[in-house]
């Protein structure tokens, strides 16, 4: 059995996969902030899930962790994970010491890409998935993709493969946290919407969509940028790596059908003016993982395989 | 011995590689226009080079052709090659019938990417070239890249991997031949410069550069767009597939040092305002193939391997 842990900014999700990669146990708990609390989230999740299936944590065939931030997957070191208060933390080594077995660590979007690949494989809908490739496009606080080609995660020569959120798309846009102007992430991400549509409610994304639906012109403009930005991400992923499947995930996808239909409307408009783009059938590449499917935790479990 | 043929819009270059992939014979001849002339260019080049090494063409271990256009590499069919007057031409089958052996056909930029990969490998400068990956960025009439990952050409699920020239980068730009507005190709390619700087001379690119160097403000603006466009291509290739090496090729690179230093100036400017981009060392990824190295023909020879 394999254990996968998705350490999120607020919640940690953990799953156990059986030998057929099916989820046989699952839990969600708060993450906490800083080294000690993040490590405790990982260790306590592992021990609790192990207990549920009647083993100790050192008996898992593999353990993998997905975490939002810059990770050295070769060493298990978290270089930076700003939202979790981590900076140069040897998460893999520390967790392994407490759990008594090797622990792999990976960026959470990359982990989710592996989980998404497993999910799409299991549906059998794309028989050439290996060679065609898949991208998992995360629309969370930021925008980033994880890319799986020939059945393997592509991290890239400096670990930034799929970081398309930092491709500038608007020369008149705002300065991004990366220092560039008008990055894709500044128009199509949770943080982009929170910046443009500050709210006292719990979700700027849902608030903005409700206001746009009610006819608010400012919200309508923000919504249009979001749809266009997601469509742009799909176009960039196609014209660079040409993956056949782009799986959408992350908090913004909780918008569901209105997001998908908005993005498809943009793509249809593009196809009308460009026979070339039309031939690429961008809309048909988009998939959405079912709500509550723990794709990043599943991917973390699979990445843990030695 | 392997034979590789690069069928260009005006010239056809052919090489023979020995068992160590070294070029042992080489020729250049005019291509001609239309099915019969293109096929004759291929057959006559093959027969002549075979004669030079004392064999008949059917004795080559493999024959491969690179050609500018949309190619079905599985069948050897050229779907479209506008500049050569080809439309739905079974080049692989026809050439094989005349030469008495199997003939592989590939898009010329993809072939050049394989040749560039071989070239960079042979210099031994990047010891992790396989996993780091390489892109060949062709600055010819158009702008497109060929991508080699894990030692293999990535064609993509619909054959458009590396077609970054059709990523729009200027919302106020001109309409591209693909139907979109402001594609990268409309600012950084031979055709982009010819459109913006029409000339009675033989080379709009060199004329424009000379005028810019002499202080012409319009030429200066076109030059700035060219430099920024090439830098943008390198950024896109890094933030999507994160290849460690981007090899520049194609007619526009005949500008040599002024092009390279102009692109590097743009990249340095970006690095100053973005620590993230600075950390990616984009300028250090750029390589140029020595002038007159027949990279596409060499790649075609290597692609011909069954």
TrEMBL record, chains A, B:
<protein>
    <submittedName>
        <fullName>ROK family protein</fullName>
    </submittedName>
</protein>
<dbReference type="Pfam" id="PF00480">
    <property type="entry name" value="ROK"/>
</dbReference>
<dbReference type="InterPro" id="IPR000600">
    <property type="entry name" value="ROK"/>
</dbReference>
<comment type="similarity">
    <text>Belongs to the ROK (NagC/XylR) family.</text>
</comment>
<dbReference type="InterPro" id="IPR043129">
    <property type="entry name" value="ATPase_NBD"/>
</dbReference>
């Amino acid at each position: 059995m394999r254990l996968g842990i998705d350490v999120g900014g607020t919640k940690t999700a953990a799953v156990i996969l059986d030998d057929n990669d099916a989820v046989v146990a699952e839990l969600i708990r708060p993450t906490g902030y800083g080294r000690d609390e993040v490590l405790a989230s990982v260790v306590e999740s592992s021990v609790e899930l192990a207990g549920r299936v009647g083993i100790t944590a050192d008996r898992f065939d593999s353990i993998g962790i997905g975490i939002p931030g810059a990770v050295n997957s070769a060493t298990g070191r978290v270089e930076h994970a700003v939202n979790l208060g981590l900076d140069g933390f040897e998460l893999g080594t520390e967790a392994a010491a407490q759990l008594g077995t090797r622990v792999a660590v990976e960026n959470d979007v990359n982990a989710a890409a592996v989980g998404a690949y497993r999910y799409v494989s299991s549906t059998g809908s794309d028989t050439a998935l290996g060679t065609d490739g898949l991208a998992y496009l995360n629309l969370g606080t930021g925008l980033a993709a994880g890319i799986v080609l020939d059945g393997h995660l592509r991290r890239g020569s400096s670990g930034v493969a799929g970081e398309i959120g930092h491709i500038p798309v608007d020369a008149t846009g705002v300065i991004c946290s990366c220092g560039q102007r008008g990055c894709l992430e500044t128009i199509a991400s949770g943080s982009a919407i929170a910046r443009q549509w500050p709210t006292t409610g719990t979700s700027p994304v849902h608030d903005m969509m409700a206001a746009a639906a009610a006819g608010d012109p400012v919200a309508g403009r923000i919504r249009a940028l979001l749809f266009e930005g997601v469509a742009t991400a799909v176009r960039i992923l196609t014209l660079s790596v040409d993956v056949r499947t782009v799986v959408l995930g992350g908090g913004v996808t909780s918008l569901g059908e209105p997001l998908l239909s908005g993005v498809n409307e943009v793509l249809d408009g593009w196809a009308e003016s460009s026979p070339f783009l039309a031939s690429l059938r961008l809309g048909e590449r988009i998939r959405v993982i079912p709500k509550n499917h723990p794709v990043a935790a599943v991917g973390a479990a699979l990445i843990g395989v030695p």
